[in-house]
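Changelog-linked ticket: coenzyme A example.
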Amino acid sequence: MHRIETVSAKQASLHLDSLTRLLVDCVEGGASIGFMLPFEPGTAWTWWRGVIAAVERDAVALLIAFDEKGRVAGSVQIALDGPCNQRHRGDIKKLMVHPTQREQGLGAALMQAAETRAQERGLSLLTLDTAVGDAGERLYARLGWQRAGIIPRYAQWPDGRFCATAIFYKELAA
Ligand SMILES: CC(C)(COP(=O)(O)OP(=O)(O)OC[C@H]1O[C@@H](n2cnc3c(N)ncnc32)[C@H](O)[C@@H]1OP(=O)(O)O)[C@@H](O)C(=O)NCCC(=O)NCCS
């Protein structure tokens, strides 16, 4: 059983090493989430420090999933720092479930928790982009997200191959 929490910057700092491991294991497992191989833990650690600073200034909402032993099992972020004419919109970033914890519904639970958090903050629209043909793309479609379109060669897999990216959105009930 997992529990999902929206964490403060201070709480996130307590889990910095586990979050670093989560990111490294996802990228080394082939996830197209913004990083290339080889991927050094130090790079991931520094990146998480930046995320935590963004949480501190309320530019990002960070949700962490913990397993029954309190270990980090996954995370997702809502970017809240769009331009001032888009304050009704959040961008979902870096949905990650640790490879050992997948296919138990945790990815869906993280997305549902992020949606609830977005509604609590008064957001009415969420957007995201994801690699075509990956588990994430199936997940978003299953959870009722609308596909706006596909952009070829938008990003790369960690090994350097290009990947097409699907842009999704979801309108939230008031
Ligand atoms: C995308 C990702 C977050 C999905 O996480 P997950 O926890 O495995 O997601 P879910 O368990 O909700 O769903 C995954 C699959 O497991 C299946 N599943 C869910 N619960 C299940 C259960 N109890 N028993 C068996 N299968 C189950 C789902 O039907 C789904 O099947 P599908 O891929 O064939 O459509 C995960 O693969 C990941 O972290 N990937 C790397 C990072 C990444 O690419 N993120 C997306 C960036 S946009």
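Closing comment: Example verified and attached. The longest strand covers residues 146-156. The radius of gyration is 15 Å.
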